[in-house]
Amino acid sequence: MLALATLVALVATAGSLFFSQVLGLIPCELCWYQRILMYPLVVVLGVAAVEERANVARTVLPLSTLGIAVATYHSFLQTTTNQSTCAVGACGSVQYRILGLTIPNLSLVAFVLVTVAVGLVWYASR
Q: How far out from the chain centre does Cα 29 lie?
């Protein structure tokens, strides 16, 4: 399960870099917060998966649950505001969709998957 959580964090990180570096999308302030919370999870979960450390939940869960909160708020802003263009700080605009999901929606899915996977590993180890 920790390997799966690592893969999710890695795909989310690679996806965010793809959006900004390849597609040229400018991340808003809330996107930056989500990146700050997701990027370290790749390393933390990767090391924990190799070492089979279930107690990594103490490190991961604060980051991932805060990430859920930020991504939920960001998704909420996108559904309740009418911003048609994105600029730095314009967190309500929708820049890109994949399968109908916006970038904050994808981030929310990733944070939830990581949280559930790590929570299951932690619960099973107790």
A: 14
Q: Which residues pair with 101 in a beta bridge?
A: 98
Query: Do residues 44 and 59 make contact, with C-beta atoms less than 8 angstroms apart?
Result: yes
The Cα–Cα gap between 112 and 17 comes to 20
Would you give the end-to-end CA distance of the chain in angstroms?
Answer: 15
2-122 classified as CATH 1.10.490.10: no
CA 88 to chain centre: 19
pTM: 0.89
| Residue 114: both structure tokens together | 């990581």
State both tokens at 50: 């190799």
Q: Where are the domains positioned within the chain?
A: 2-122
pLDDT along the chain (126 residues), means of 10: 97 96 90 96 97 94 98 89 55 78 94 97 92
Sequence-separated (6 or more) residues with CB below 8 Å from residue 107: 12, 16, 31, 34, 38, 67, 71, 74
Place of tokens 């998966």: 49
Contact 22, 29 (CB under 8 A): no
Count of residues for the chain? 126
